[in-house]
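Predict the 3D structure for this chain.
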Amino acid sequence: MSKQLLMGAFIVCGVLAMGQVMVAADSNIGTWKLNLAKSKYDPGPAPKSQTLKIEAWGADGVTYTSDGVGADGKPFHWAFQAKYDGKFVPFTGNADADMLAYKRIDANTVESTTQLKGKETGHTRAVVSADGKTRTLTQTGKNAKGQDIHNVLVFEKQ
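Done. Predicted structure below.
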């Protein structure tokens, strides 16, 4: 094998490895289950259950799905696919928002802004604990009914 071909193979392997490290470094990736006992909903009521599934999408984004059972006993499904670039993308299934913008603050912190029919409705700060086992969302804004929201949702990694 020529030196040039060998060097090219090493470079390609190195670039691929760095890409995998960057994707693996996203502490939000995984399946997260809501811990109702540690969470606070203002106003309530809280859902009966909720599970988040967050998967890497490209080198700089996520595919996010949330499934659960609402306080009314009805199942729900929310979803979006977003880059960490702060640009609004469709957010489906959520009565309080139809668009969402995602932005990475640091390795363990993500902030999002939601809109409903073109009007900004809320802000969420998601922080993954240093040990990677807990993801805490602090939400402020207004719901679709116009009520102020001040929620703290605690999710545990599954």
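The domain at 28-157 is CATH 2.40.128.20 (Lipocalin).
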